[in-house]
Please model this.
Amino acid sequence: MNEIYLNKLQEKNFKLTPRRIAIIDFFLSRERYLNPEIIWKGLKKKFKHLGLPSIYRNLELFSKCGILTKIQMPNRKLYYGLCKAKDNKHHHHIVCIKCGKVGEFFEENLFEKKTINGFKVLNHFLQVEGICSTCRIKS
Amino acid sequence: MNEIYLNKLQEKNFKLTPRRIAIIDFFLSRERYLNPEIIWKGLKKKFKHLGLPSIYRNLELFSKCGILTKIQMPNRKLYYGLCKAKDNKHHHHIVCIKCGKVGEFFEENLFEKKTINGFKVLNHFLQVEGICSTCRIKS
DNA sequence: CTGCGTGCAAAGTATTTGCAAACCG
DNA sequence: CGGTTTGCAAATACTTTGCACGCAG
Model:
């Protein structure tokens, strides 16, 4: 289940600690973008001692390893979500504004054209907000 | 020059203060996304006393009036840019990562489809980064 | 064993709030 | 003049850093 992600860590010679495994499992157990504090609160039950800085450090590490993607939400909090795209194919995320569930999608030739208004396109960040099917049924 | 924007304020019964006019003119004088501190430093020359909170408050006000658009940059700072689209047609921004110049563009039917992966699309935020023509020549 | 990983405390940084004084309309 | 707007100081909130101890490999 979590092997793909743990492998990514080992490949780069990072250690597999209980906390790191727990963080990845936490993401796996919910299809959501999560912020450091939520994860911390969720895992404090499991670990008697658990520091918030440790969560921050690991999330940042994971995002550098291609395990998580990081976004800045308008509420000024950091959020991270599991990168489920098997290969590292470029993709986008759609977030449910009610429950936070995240989906991924590929907009094929979104910017196949490499220049816009004279700007040479280097990269882009696309965030789509919506309501997921589960939340639509509820309301 | 700045009338369109000042009118938007007056329409909503907000007062036209020297500071507000100066902020709008500051944006007009540079085609850039700017963050509160830059504006503050730029205008302190002009006003002997000028508080940073005042900048924050006005930028937020302007964005609510449709004068500016607000984005959260990955560096955790707020940035605002003039909304030049005459009508309030939905548009996107492309930002030069060297000089900060911002261009606008319209990707017509970017999400004409109203659902993605079962999510009902409410809105989206697209930011493209690139190098503007001027900066390309320089380097 | 060795160096990476972690908890804890403290610092850092961007933004927001409270309030009295100043000012637009 | 009355209610906005503002400066200043202080508070807030999230994230980062330093350092000594602990643990994975």
Notes: Strands of chain B lie at 68-72, 78-82, 92-96, 102-105, 115-116, 119-131. The first strand of chain B starts at residue 68 and ends at 72.
